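User: Show me a protein chain along with its predicted structure.
Assistant: Here is one chain, sequence first, then structure tokens.
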Amino acid sequence: MTKLILALIAFPIILVFAWEAVSTYRTNNLCDPGDHIIRSEADAIKQAKIRFNRARYGSHGIAGHLDEKPELVDFSRRGDNCCSATRSRNVFGVIGWQVYLDGETVGEPTVRNVGVSMVLSNCGAVFTRDSFITAEPNSAERSGKP
């Protein structure tokens, strides 16, 4: 009788751990069509530059200046210091890439400074809950100086 009770208690626990293990494996290793497993920091940065527009936009709230998500951003104008990426694992074993991008808008009447903080899965999928983009006017435009 006690073995039956222990089995009834253990089965749901084992089931939850098995489900989590399968979910972690799928998140880390099974990519959508056209995606691939991120192999390096440079690859994570490249994927973030492609997918930056999937991040949530944070309003700057500065009156008189454009306050909407930018469509085109040039991350190369900042040189080698534009971007960084760090690989980590959460408590469930899911691999995440924390990527920071710094650039400027392109094709707008006034240039805005763009900052992007993104978390990508190991396959490059954007974790939108943890990914943000901001676009603020540069300090010269804010103060009214040319």
